[in-house]
Amino acid sequence: MRKSILILSSFLLAMAACTVEEDFSEKAGNQSPVISPEIDLQDSISVKVFDYLNLDYPGLESVKEHYSKATATDPVDESELYLAAYELLDYYRNRSFIMPEYSFINPYASESDLNIADQAIEHRFYVKNFSDGNTADGKEQYYLFPEKTDGTGIIDWTYVPDNLTASENEWKSQRFRHQWMMPQAKAYGMTKDEKYVTSWIEVYGDFMNQYPCPEGKISGSDELATAWTNLQVAERTSEQPAIFKYFMGSVNFTPGWLTQILATYAEGVESIIQNPYYAPENNIYFSQIKAVTTAGVMFPEFKNAPDWLTYASQQINSQLDLQFRPDGVHNDLDPSYHRGTLDNFYTTYNLVQANERSEVFPSDLLTKLRNACWFMIDVTYPDYLLEYFNDTRKTTKNVMKRNFRHYSEMFPEDQEILWMATEGERGTMPTKKMALYSDGGYYMLRNGWTKKSTMLIIKNNDNYDQRWHCQPDNNTIGLYSNGRHFLPDAGAFSYGGNEQNESDRATYAATSMHNTLTSNGADIPDDRMRGRLLKSEEGSNYNLIVTENDSYDGMSHRRATFFVEDKFFVIVDEGHGDKEHTACLSFLFCETKNDVPEDKYENEANAYGAHTIFSDNNNMIFKTFTETTDGLKTTWNTKYYSPEIGEKVQRPFYKVDVKKAADKAARFITVIYPLGAPADFANMSISASFTDNAAGQEGTFHSEGASVKVTINGTEYDLSYKLN
């Protein structure tokens, strides 16, 4: 360990006594009085940082003077070198420093921040989405990283908790993003308690000692490569300027420590540029661009800062089209990664605007981001939560509202975005009831925007380049009504990484785990996830969306979804094509099995379903009818969905199978109807049939459209569509 970490030399004591209270203002404030520091030759100086700095940059005159004197002799004059570092620290303590997302004037650490910061002192490090139960007082507890036993460092960074088999791969990446350091920085900013600084110096110093930044191109997948590639170095680089600023007023933040972290920081930025993520249209790639932009804006004193900004500007100009499809959907086709990438654009845009470097961004940036913002609004349920589509995990209402506030800042004239950002306290409630994102393959039907509203999402992605985060679940649906998620998506139990984890990931991604049509339970092949929109229509008493996917060799899946009278859904599913298949239609419900009984309909040979019986009188009936009965089989059982990595929730499902003959179609009608009290189910009468096939022609597919009749408690609804 560096000798200077915990040593408070007479210089430091003098500086603490003589220096006015640290200025945390966004603009340069009071200057510290001129003092003659006592030279501390135990404070290890990183000489190479002076090679990285542009010593002719305004404000670094004293730094250059002392460094020139230091290097004018052989050997180097250590006293002058120390003074150069001392002047550099003084410069950074007093220079203008604006990062809009952080408050340096009145630093604030939440209870969660303080919990993370305090546990990190004990080497219980916060790693996002991972916890080791709760503490005795009910707070979230984090995993304890063991000490290194071979004398090469303090912390065993290779540690993987035994119970994280399903998420080992994710853990190995997340631990190197140092997500506890920002909470520690905020905790110090608010409390001025030196324990947070000394903890940070000890831990970050140990990390730099064990994992020095590699030079040039990084290959392989060992620990060093993991620490210095992809999101690991990108996230650290984006946050470190604010961390440095929060801690910089500490007496333990020595000139030598500054030179060490700045040298590593500059090397990390260069490493990002030399090791870009292999897919430039990926969210990870833009996170790297954000990091380089942050470095160029916040550290203009580095020689390469102009090159960093030039590089970032060139990349950002192309990133808008690479990251987002024309309709605004992110190329990963995953709402959570869409949200994260959009937030990266926002924070980067905000940073360059605040620091008057707007030339970094293209002039049409906001125009291109509007669709991306609206996709997040349209795909969000009225309770401000997201469906677990693809790799999307649990979100919180606060997180979503914060993102909507960001969108409102970018588009202050949009009163509907303002309404979403303020949860209806200001602005104008959106009125549209249908949203179509045909490039990405997301479609929404709703009857309103309040928590009591009903909303259905059709996910039929056009995954033409086989994105890893996209599951083979084309034409699946998610359903929300009055605060309940009736058809939660399967989610992603694992991010893979070893044989068992890959198997777990495949299990939850399977087509049969979703509310769609399969061929005997088989997955849709990766190269057949090419969902398309055939028709949308706003009728007099219904809204309609028709989607299709050529899911299997010889069987395509067409799904027509009618939202009738803003009240109930009629879904017409057709498996059509020139080959024989067993067509299997599945609906997978919310937990628990006791609240979703099976409906057998003994007197209706071609009907099957289920309904919910929740005591809050917010329920749904699901009833499926088949046009043909050849090979008809019904299944009632349980499966799981996963709201978080490594977490699973049991839930019931039903499946209806029929045989599809060659050149014929397996045709289904499913009615999803709201139910109040569970006892009301006994009084419900629902029937449905196709009306476009004469007797003896059942199973005939009509490429131009379909017609059905649905009768609910004596009221008939004739529903049909024709393709243009």
Task: Characterize this entry briefly.
The chain is an alpha+beta fold and 724 residues long. 32% of the residues lie in helices and 19% in strands. The strands form 4 sheets. Strands 7-8-9-10-17-14-13-12 form an 8-stranded antiparallel β-sheet, with no helix packed on it. It has a 5-stranded antiparallel β-sheet with strand order 1-2-3-4-5, with helices on one face.
Topology diagram in text:
Blueprint: H1 10-18, H2 49-52, H3 61-71, H4 78-94, H5 111-121, H6 168-174, H7 181-191, H8 194-210, H9 223-227, H10 230-247, H11 255-274, H12 283-298, H13 305-323, H14 335-354, H15 365-379, H16 397-410, H17 415-421, E1 434-437, E2 442-446, E3 454-459, E4 476-481, E5 484-485, H18 499-509, E6 517-519, E7 532-538, E8 542-552, E9 555-564, E10 568-576, E11 581-588, E12 598-599, E13 607-611, E14 619-626, E15 633-641, E16 649-660, E17 665-675, E18 686-690, E19 705-712, E20 715-722
Antiparallel strand pairs: 1-2, 2-3, 3-4, 4-5, 6-11, 7-8, 8-9, 9-10, 10-17, 11-16, 12-13, 13-14, 14-17, 15-16, 18-19, 19-20
Describe the structure using short key phrases.
five-stranded antiparallel β-sheet, 32% helix, alpha+beta, Beta-galactosidase, Chain A, domain 5, 724 residues, eight-stranded antiparallel β-sheet
Q: Can you tell me about this structure?
A:
The chain is of the alpha+beta class and 724 residues long. Among the domains are: 10-94, no CATH class; 434-722, Distorted Sandwich (Beta-galactosidase, Chain A, domain 5). Helix content is 32%, strand content 19%. The chain has 18 helices and 20 strands. The chain has helices at 10-18, 49-52, 61-71, 78-94, 111-121, 168-174, 181-191, 194-210, 223-227, 230-247, 255-274, 283-298, 305-323, 335-354, 365-379, 397-410, 415-421, 499-509, and strands at 434-437, 442-446, 454-459, 476-481, 484-485, 517-519, 532-538, 542-552, 555-564, 568-576, 581-588, 598-599, 607-611, 619-626, 633-641, 649-660, 665-675, 686-690, 705-712, 715-722. Strands 7-8-9-10-17-14-13-12 form an eight-stranded antiparallel sheet, with no helix packed on it. The chain has a five-stranded antiparallel sheet with strand order 1-2-3-4-5, covered by helices on one side. The chain has a four-stranded antiparallel sheet with strand order 6-11-16-15, with no helix packed on it. Strand 12 and strand 13 form a beta hairpin.
